[in-house]
Amino acid sequence: MNAITTTQPLVSIEGLTIGLPFGGDRARAVDAIDLSVHRGRVLCVVGESGSGKSMTAHAIMGLVPRPLKVDGMIRYGGENLVGMPAARHRRIRGSRIGMVFQEPMAALNPVMKVGKQIEEVFRFHGVPGPHDARIVALLEQMGLPEPELLRHAYPFRLSGGQRQRVMIAMALALDPDLLIADEPTTALDVTTQKQILALLKTAQAERDMAIVLITHDFGVVAEIGDEVAVMQHGRIVERGLVSEVLGNPQHDYTRTLLAAVPRLEPNPSTKPAGAETLLSADRVTKVYASRSGFFGPRREVPAVTDATLSLARGETLGIVGESGSGKSTLARIIVRLLTADSGEVRLAGVERNLLELGHRELAPLRRRVQMVFQDPFASLNPRRTVFEIVAQGLLAHGTGRREARRRVEELLDLVALDPAVADRYPNAFSGGQRQRIGIARALALEPDLIVADEPVSALDVSIQARVLKLFSDIQHRLGIGLLFITHDLRVAAQVCDCVAVMQRGRIVEMGTSEQVLFEPRHDYTQLLIDSIPGRGMLSAHTGSRAK
Amino acid sequence: MRQLGFLVGWLVKALVVVLAITILNFLLIRLAPGDPAIVMAGEAGAADERFLAQIRSDFGLDRPLLVQLGIYLKNVLTLDLGQSYRNQRAVVDMLFERLPATLLLTGSAYLFALVFGPLLGAIAAMKARTVYDSALMVVALFFYATPIFWVGLLLILVFSVQLGWLPPFGMQSLIPVEGTLARTLDILRHLILPAVTLGLFYVAVYVRLTRASMLETATLDYVKTARAKGLPEWRVATAHILRTALLPIITFAGLQAGHLVGGAIVVETVFAWPGIGRLAFDALFQRDYNLLLGVFLLSALMVVFFNMVTDILLRVADPRIGSRA
């Protein structure tokens, strides 16, 4: 398996070029690349957003948006897919070449039952019906529970992992030769990711199929890939066997990307000894109650149960868990964006339980606790300049305009942005830069505590690394407490002094990062650690990258 | 159980809304300047104080406002909307007499719009940024921006005055025609111009709405999935784009359906169409409170009713509405 196969490749790409419209950040999205993939192998295409990897996949599918021009050759089954008549390409698409997308939430039609969405593949590729038995069998193969019932469900009834399984079922319905998976696990929890990767691997072995897997995560590459191609600015800068590229990367860019992958490594705690307790939460509990319909029965879903934690000045506490574990709910309770049902939250210097304060009493405390949000695109008002965004809190708390201006420039400098950008609007910035603006906004009022809810999960790994470094730099300089919510244990390992692991609303384990991540006591923590993609391989090569 | 709960809950809400609207209308109309007694006395040509007092006591207008309101509400509950001050006839009778004409006009315009609006909008979206699209959008913008009465007058000028193909006003010929079929055809001939006038405005709205909604839906991930499955383009457009793009159109159509009764005042006036819009217009100038309140109540009921129909349709079209994940 480890030598590059010498037989005829299933798909070979030669000199593929995709032009961008005039005014783009470069002339070509994809610039004269050569690639090939053989039956029974997994080719991973790695790169940051905008590197052209998705565009390459779209070119194979014949789905490049119309104004863009595709040149070069994509050979498949003795034909060139580039410039192939649309009707002919359509017949290959979905039957011989299947594709799975990143966002399982968005990739299924919300108003069509999942069975029907799978059936379309059979119907429109001329497979005579009835298709019911095939659909049920497919869903079963994908490891979905009760396929007979599930096929009549609408996508919104399914979990993210289940939806991705349905997507894969759809792509595999006609046993394609090639499966293209565009970031298939990026939107999923780490345990679900592991299952989906395993599913892909099994499906591939059973069908002797080729997979082109697009990802920005070298962990995934190490987990599933046979070969890897690294893309930057539309070009392939390095390609080869996964073991070789990961073990001995030749290109600088590959090295940078590899170095940026957060590793599960002990992070020497920088927590100042004997620091005063800044925040403590005691037995915080929150239950979501809902009613179905006007007279429907009341349903109760416990979101957070008896959560107890404490955080010292200058310390970073990570709250780790999968989606639905209650970590964001807990964070929102602490900043009082949500009310708890019971429990106590105390902030240094405040006599009373934070949860019992009224809005008026809370107002002066608000500036002491600030929040950084996950989505850097949704959390900045697009109609305000950077200055207005960052200075909003200052101006609201009575700082003069001139003084606010000076302070904003200082803050932008602190988050490593050019102070001259203060008068531009958020759309002028990349995701990582926007997150810096979000951090500057949170810092503006000199808070004692910052609550960051998945602040890097929407960013590419290399940008992630820089933002994480920024967080720890600022914290050391300003000595603020940081409550860091994340689903990624590797990220937690990098920035957190202490970690609390949440599962179904409860904190199941808490301790220093080293204890929790390297000597876990709870099974669930162990499961999370085991699910980290490519753990063994990446850590084995840690030495080689440290040159 | 859930459906029943929805229905009961909805009925309670609807009752509250209708009651609130009725009370508000009653009070607002009396806040407006003008006095029906003076209008009536003026028309009778005898405006002395005794005569005015007589009129006021005949119609109960001399009683305290709240008492009047109480009496009115009690009557409404028994479907008695009172007498028209001016016509000396039961308001209910007058409304039902005029309702068919209005529903015929607005209903035809509405159907016309519902068929051609989304259809042309879909074509514009599928041919987006081509000559066809631009041409459609310019025409739609023209009918959207031009006042309805002006379009009506232009159509009369061309099709009645110049070409003499269609009658310019009324619902039937002045000389009655014999026979059911002939009479139906006569009404249809009278219907075309006002219905098209009103319909063109609606079509313009739907074309723009459908186009925008489809173009937005077309960028969504699941449309890409549909293409990646190798579905033919027509299937992608109908089953995946149009189906979800129709949701805002259903919402809008529902809102509009509620205005079928009151929405045609201008067209009914231009074409002398004997409908409710015309009736409301006249009642307004004659300070005919009861008649006006009757028209308002009827149109409120329509709005509330069609809101429910819209809610139900949306629940059918989009399974996410009304259920919890």
What is the fold's blueprint, element by element?
The complex is a heterodimer of chains A (547) and B (325).
Chain A (H helix, E strand, L loop, with lengths): L10 E9 L8 E10 L4 E5 L6 H9 L8 E7 L2 E2 L5 H7 L4 E4 L3 H4 L6 H11 L7 H10 L5 H4 L9 H13 L5 E5 L7 H18 L2 E6 L2 H7 L2 E6 L2 E7 H6 L4 H9 L16 E15 L6 E15 L3 E5 L6 H8 L7 E6 L11 H8 L2 E4 L13 H11 L4 H14 L16 H13 L5 E5 L7 H18 L2 E6 L2 H7 L2 E6 L2 E7 H6 L4 H8 L4 H6 L1 H4 L2
Chain B lengths: L1 H30 L4 H9 L4 H10 L6 H13 L13 H36 L4 H15 L2 H15 L17 H39 L2 H8 L4 H25 L7 H6 L5 H10 L3 H29 L8
Helix pairs in contact in B: 1-13, 2-3, 5-6, 5-8, 5-10, 5-13, 6-8, 7-8, 8-10, 9-10, 10-13, 12-13
Description of the molecule:
The complex is a heterodimer of chains A (547) and B (325). In chain A, the strands form four sheets. Chain A has a six-stranded mixed beta sheet with strand order 6-7-8-3-9-10, sandwiched between helices. The relative contact order of chain A is 0.11. The C terminus of chain A is likely disordered. Chain A has two domains: 249 residues, P-loop containing nucleotide triphosphate hydrolases (Rossmann fold, 3-Layer(aba) Sandwich), CATH 3.40.50; 193 residues, 3-Layer(aba) Sandwich (Rossmann fold), CATH 3.40.50.300. With 547 residues, chain A is α/β, with parallel strands linked by helices. Chain B has 325 residues and is mostly helical. Chain B has a domain of 182 residues: MetI-like (MetI-like fold). Chain B contains 13 helices and no strands. The longest helix of chain B is centred in the middle third of the chain and has 39 residues. Chain B is globular, with a radius of gyration of 24 Å. Chain B starts with a helix and ends in an 8-residue tail after the last helix. The mean pLDDT of chain B is 84. At the A-B interface, helix 2, helix 4 and helix 7 of A face helix 1, helix 9 and helix 10 of B.
CATH H-tier superfamily of the domain at 99-280 in chain B = MetI-like
Low-pLDDT segments, ≥5 res of chain A = 540-547
Radius of gyration of chain B: 24 Å
Strand content of chain B: under 5%
Derived structural class of chain A:
alpha/beta
* Structural class estimated from helices and strands of chain B: mainly alpha
CATH architecture of the domain at 99-280 in chain B: Orthogonal Bundle
Greatest interface and its residue counts?
A-B, 35 and 32 residues
Number of domains of chain A: 2
- CATH class wording of the largest domain in chain A: Alpha Beta
Span from first to last CA of chain B? 18 Å
